Amino acid sequence: MTARIALPMEAAPAPLPPGQRIYAVGDVHGCADRLHAMHEAIRDDLARRPVPAPLLVHLGDYVDRGPDSAGVIALLRDLAIPGVIIINLMGNHEAMLLETLAGEPGAAAQWLDNGGDKALRSWGISPGSAPDGWAAALPASDRDFIAGLAITYRAGPYLFVHAGLRPGVSLARQTREDMLWIREPFLSWTGGFDEDVVVVHGHTPGRAPVLRGRRIGIDTGAVLGGPLSCAVLEANRLGFIFA
């Protein structure tokens, strides 16, 4: 699989300082081949257009629905690109996985209904087996990686988060639930957010990336037949890579 870089870049909602470039990758959902192609495209872009301070942010939902959740986690867990800071955020699907492994009531049924069965199979675990044995059957390195995922990351004027923010609520008072799960009223909001941040998010799939007001949505349904999308932010410009 090959990736496509959509350049030249268009105007971005906010500028970054000279020398900084941010790559933000949307929802992967078990599509390990697409994620591998995306990482190769990012390496190629950096080789052609090096910058002093590159940053790579993955926006969560690495597992479920697609064929190779285990492969995606392995790629992310072991990923190293020389000179690049790599930030991995949690999505609601990772949160459901962790709640299931912790034995929270009703969590296993919810996770299986949302594609957790395919994730289990990718680790060689039968979805029909007893849920209380799943945690021990997952590799400890994968469990630890998923448990250590961050909820948000701030880089200058950009706030990276899986689902979004609740409008009218300060950044300090946003809830974990909203940041992992929110759709409305976030998606239809055209005003600003606290501290005038630009929110870069995934979670809600569309046919193409969305630039609306102070938000950029980059879940383009890789597991649904669309591409895996990566926003590229640099200076006052915005471009995309598709895999």
Task: Describe what this molecule looks like in 3D.
The chain has helices spanning 32-48, 69-78, 92-101, 107-122, 134-137, 140-147, 176-181, and strands at residues 4-11, 20-25, 53-58, 85-88, 152-155, 158-161, 198-201, 210-212, 215-217, 229-234, 237-242. The protein is an alpha/beta fold. It has a single domain (4-95, 134-242), classed as Metallo-dependent phosphatases (Purple Acid Phosphatase, chain A, domain 2, 4-Layer Sandwich), CATH 3.60.21. Strands 1-11-10-2-3-4 form a six-stranded mixed sheet, with helices on one face. It has a five-stranded mixed sheet with strand order 5-6-7-9-8, with no helix packed on it. It is globular, with a radius of gyration of 17 Å. The model has no long low-confidence stretch (mean pLDDT 96).
